[in-house]
Design a protein that fits this description.
The protein is of the alpha/beta class. It folds into three domains: about 5-75, Elongation Factor Tu (Ef-tu), domain 3 (Beta Barrel); about 80-360, Rossmann fold; about 370-460, no CATH class. It is about 30% helix and about 20% strand. Strands 9, 11, 14, 16, 17, 18, 19, 20, 21 and 22 form a ten-stranded mixed beta sheet that branches. Strands 1-7-4-5-6-3-2 form a seven-stranded antiparallel beta sheet, with no helix packed on it. The chain has a three-stranded antiparallel beta sheet with strand order 13-12-15, with no helix packed on it. Helix 10 packs antiparallel against helix 11 (about 430-440).
Length: about 475
């Protein structure tokens, strides 16, 4: 720490203060701002020029006076204390313990801003993660080291789905019969209500996984700018556990929409030219700086798998937040309001959901030989169901051909038997694929064009192919 203070501020604009001091100051450096009574609040350098420096406060500006305030630049970026005692602890969005047990016993600190992973050092994700949820395991498979967001909307059960994934997710590295490997969890909440945070914490306690969870909570009543730091602290903790302690880490971040709103707020205060819907032009690169901190690195047996949750404003998947997230991440799980209103849980939309890494984590030796064919056929048949339902809404169901009526029946069975499951039900990949075969029996065999005939004989007829 430099320990040198500078008196006076040029301007105070909401949570951003401007000082004329700019020599020997670095971007993202931590600064302490003192009011006239000696009250101390931290901030970070977010902008600078040759004549001034802008500091974003992590709290309120109440009590600050432009003439009587003092600024101290601490000469280092914001850091998180990491160590063996991370697991089982609860922190606020700034990485400060809030569970009453004090600081963890460690002298090691890590820069929360992280470093980009060298693409050459990355290992391609291939290990299948069994979530126990048929809509994901069967059709949108999650792979270790992948970033697969959940696109949801207000009132949809994204929190229940994320909690179920946290409870049930296991890594299977050599086929469905192999011994599963558990995850440690890093959970980050940004701008959520207390009842949402309590839902997750209670779920961790009931399922007995709390000792393997690191929690970062920036609740709705916390300073909004704390939301910009919370995911960086969470990912720093995840990097320590994954790449230094060789653990498999599952990072759940909710709600990315609140993070982006805080980013828009800061951008507006700084007077930056807005882009789409008022968000800053660098929204894409800022989100990428978070999402790209997932993956596997050569030389480490650990990994970081990300499940960011974002609520789409007005269920609009073309909104800048889900739109840009979809470009960065390797697919998305989209929740459908119509399915939810029909009482289907989890209401995973069949057609807009996808996993771009699925093809490399399924098949013989990983899941089952028929996985790819069954998934492809279910997608194709459900797409046909959507077309038939649209036609039926125009001409009436009684005017449909017999073939179209069979697709309507398939759609009902697919939604009720394959998609629908209790949130306590943990299905194996074999059970998921067997359910897929059962609903495919609704269709004529001549329509199963995406499935190898040998698999039809083996799994639909129960016979060994000649």
């Amino acid at each position: 720490m430099r320990g040198v203070e500078f008196r006076g501020l040029t301007r105070i604009e909401g949570p951003v203060v401007i000082t004329e001091r700019s020599r020997n100051v670095g971007f993202n450096e931590v600064a302490a701002v003192y009011d006239r009574n000696g009250g101390r609040r931290l901030g970070r350098v977010v902008d600078m020029s040759g004549d001034w420096t802008a500091i974003q406060l992590f709290g309120s500006n109440t009590g600050l006076s432009a003439d009587e305030s003092r600024v101290e630049f601490l000469g280092a970026p914001m850091e998180l204390r990491v160590g063996e005692g991370l697991l089982g602890r609860i922190f606020n969005g700034l990485g400060e313990p809030v569970d009453g047990y004090g600081e963890i016993l460690s002298s090691k600190r890590m820069d929360v801003n992280g470093l980009p992973i060298n693409p050459y050092a990355r290992t391609y994700p291939r290990d299948f993660i069994q979530t126990g949820i048929s809509a994901i395991d069967g059709m949108n498979t999650l792979i270790r080291g992948q970033k697969l967001p959940i696109f949801s909307g207000n009132g949809l059960p994204h929190n229940r789905l994320a909690a179920q994934i946290v409870r049930q997710a296991r890594i299977i590295t050599s086929g469905a019969g192999a011994s599963p490997e558990p995850f440690v969890i890093v959970f980050c909440a940004m701008g959520v209500k207390y009842d949402v945070a309590r839902f997750f914490l209670s779920g961790f306690e009931r399922s007995g996984v709390l000792a393997n969870v690191v929690v970062f909570l920036s609740l709705a009543d916390a300073p909004s700018l704390e939301r910009l730091v919370a995911p960086k602290c969470a990912l720093t903790a995840a990097e320590y556990l994954a790449y230094e302690k060789n653990m498999h880490v599952l990072v759940v971040m909710t709600d990315m929409t609140n993070y982006c709103e805080a980013l828009r707020e800061v951008s507006s205060i700084r007077g930056e030219v807005p882009s789409r819907k008022g968000y800053p032009g660098y929204l894409y690169s800022d989100l990428a700086s978070l999402y790209e901190r997932a993956g596997k690195i050569a030389g480490s047996t650990g990994s970081i798998t990300q499940i960011p949750i974002l609520t789409m404003p007005n269920d609009d998947i073309s909104h800048p937040i889900p739109d840009l997230s979809g470009y960065i991440t390797e697919g998305q799980i989209v929740l459908d309001r119509e399915l939810s209103q029909k009482g289907i849980y989890p209401p995973v939309a069949g057609l807009p959901s996808l996993s771009r890494l699925m093809k490399d984590g399924i098949g013989p030796g990983m899941t089952r030989e028929d996985h790819k064919d069954v998934s492809s056929q279910l997608f194709a048949a459900y797409s046909k169901v959507k077309q038939v339902r649209n036609l039926a809404s125009i001409i009436g169901e009684e005017e449909l051909s017999e073939g179209d009526k069979r697709y309507l029946k398939f759609g009902e069975r697919f939604e009720q038997d394959f998609l629908t499951q209790d949130e306590t039900e943990n299905r194996s990949i074999d059970r998921t694929l067997d359910l897929g075969w059962q609903v495919l029996k609704t269709l004529p065999r001549d329509d199963l064009l995406r499935i190898n005939q040998e698999y039809i004989i083996k799994y639909m007829d129960g016979k060994e192919p000649a």
